[in-house]
Amino acid sequence: MHLTHLNTRGEANMVDVGDKQETRREAVASGRIVMQSETLKLLSDGELPKGDVLATARIAGIQAAKRTHELIPLCHSLALSKVSVEFDIDVAESCVHVTSLCRLNGRTGVEMEALTAVSVACLTLYDMCKAVDKNMRIEAIQLDSKQGGQRGDYQRINAQAPIVTGDGMAGEVSLGERCPSPCVRVKFLAELRERLGESEAVVSLDQLASRDIGGLKAALAERDSRFKQLTDQRTLCAINQVMANDDALVTDDDEVAFFPPVTGG
Amino acid sequence: MDIKLDIKVAIQAAPFSMAYGYDDALAGRSDIGAVVSFTGLVRDFNETPDVTGLTLEHYPGMTERTLTDIGEQAWQRWSLQAVRIIHRVGYLEPGDPIVRVLVASAHRREAFEACDFIMDFLKTQAPFWKKEHSTQGEYWVKERHSDQQDAARWR
Fold it and tell me: Name one GO molecular function term (chain A) (predicted).
C-alpha cells in the first residue's frame, strides 16, 4: 500500500491520470450537524432569521463540490455529471443528516467532491443557525461508499460502531482537552464506555482525596453516581497504558483507562 | 542470532494472509527446526447461535506494548528464534481470521509450548474487546473462566 499523492522522494505530487480508462464513478458521503431541539424546530418550520436554511445549504454543497479542486491542493478539476445534497431532519437525535452523491464518467474518483459537498453544506447550516445556537456540532463526516475505479468498490460497514479508542491511530489527530491545573485524563473503554455513556473525563488532581487510583474512583463517584461502578472488582485499570491497581499513584497529565475484562483472540 | 530478540507484533483492520509471518521469520535462516502457528477464526456461533459478525475494539498503544511483552516473556521461558503476532481490529465476519501467532524454534516442543503460552496470555491480558452482532441483536462478549484457568497453568 502506498500514498499516490507522494512521489518517490516523498514530495506532494498530482497523479497523472491521462492513461487511465474513463469509467463511471460514484461516491456517497455523509455527515451530521447536531443542534438543540429548539433550533431544529425553527429550522424545520422555516422560522430562522436567515430564511430557507436547507435550500441555501443544498446550493452551497453543490457549488462546493464543483470547486473541490480549488480547495484541496492535489485534486483534479472534474466535470461532474451529477451532484446531489440531501437532508434528513432527525428529531430523535436532534440533528440534520447530510448526504451527498457525486457522479461522473472520468479517470479519477469523486469521493473528495462528495466529502466537500457534505462539509460545506454542514458549515452553511451552521452559519444559517448560529444566531440562535452556538453549541452546534458538525460530526461524522465520512465516505459511505464509492463505485468504479481500479481499486474497486468500497462500502462502509457498520458505520456507527467504534473500532478503536484512544490516541495513536495513524493519520488521526487527537484534540484532547488541556486543563490549566494539574490533572489526569481518564478514558472509559468498550462496554464500560457504553454503560457509562462517557468516553473521556478530566479530573483535577486537587479533587483527589488521595492521589491514587482509589482516590480517582472516589472523586469520579462523587461527581456522578454512575461512576460508582468503577469500584466493581472486574473493572480493570491502566495508568499510561500499564496495568495498575487502586494503590497506584497518579501524577499530572497521566492517562488513566478503565475497562472491562479483555476478550480478544 | 538467537540471543537477539526477533519479535514482531501487528494490529490492523485489514485481513492478513494465512501464511503471515512465515517467510519473514524464516528468511535467510537455516537454524530453525520447527515452526508452530496458531490461527484463530470468527465462529458463527458463540454466546448466541447466529453470530453474523463482530466488532473488535482495542486500546492503541497498550495493545502493541502488551503483545510485545507477552512475546518477550515467551522468549525468556523457551529457546526461540522468531515470534510473530498479528491481530485484527474492526468489523469481522464468520470465517475471517482474527489472530495469528507464529513461533519458530530449533525443536518442536518449545515452539508448541511457546505458541500455546502466547495465546493464553493474549486472551487474558491484551486489551481487545469483542462485540458480537447476531440475529438477536448485539452484545459485548463476556470473559471466560476457562481462559483464566488456561493462563494460570503457566504460573
Answer: cyclic pyranopterin monophosphate synthase activity
- Give the residue among B82, B92, B96, B155 at the shortest CA–CA distance from B121: B155
Residues paired with A84 in a beta bridge: A101
CB of A139 within 8 A of CB of A33? yes
User: CB A157 to CB B125 under 8 A?
Assistant: no
B14 bridge partner residues: none
How far apart, in whole angstroms, are the C-alpha atoms of residue B152 and residue A123?
55
Sheet of A255-259: strands edge to edge?
A200-204, A183-188, A255-259, A236-239, A242-243
Contact state of A167 with B60 under an 8 Å Cβ cutoff: yes
DSSP for A180-248 reads SSSEEEEEE-HHHHHHHT-SEEEEEGGG-SSSBHHHHHHHHHHH-GGGGGGGSTT-EEEETTEE--TT-
- Cβ atoms A39, A125 nearer than 8 A: no
Can you give the residue ranges of every domain in chain A? 21-153, 181-257
Q: Is A21-153 a CATH 3.30.70.640 domain?
A: yes
Taking only the tens of pLDDT, chain B with its 155 residues reads 446 899 999 999 999 999 999 999 999 999 999 999 999 999 988 878 888 999 999 999 999 999 999 999 999 999 999 999 999 999 999 999 999 999 999 999 999 999 999 999 999 999 999 999 988 888 999 999 999 999 999 98
Q: Which amino acid is at B22?
A: Y
Is A75 known as a binding-site position? yes
For residue A231 the three cell numbers come to 469500584
Any chain B CB within 8 A of the CB of A265? Answer: yes
Cell of B2: 538467537
Q: pTM of this prediction?
A: 0.61
Any known ligand binding at A243? no
Do B60 and A164 count as a contact with CB atoms less than 8 A apart?
Answer: yes
- Spell out which residues of chain A touch residue B65, defining contact as CB-CB under 8 Å: 241-242
Quote the minimal CA–CA distance from A256 to chain B in Å: 12
- pLDDT tens column, A63-77: 999 999 998 888 888
Nearest to A241 among B62, B119, B141 (CB): B62
Return the CATH class of domain A181-257.
Answer: alpha beta
Output the pLDDT for position A179: 61
- A69 annotated as a binding-site residue: no
Cross-chain CB nearest to A191 (options B60, B91, B129): B129
CB contact under 8 A, B131 and A241: no
Cβ contacts below 8 Å, chain A against chain B, sum to 101
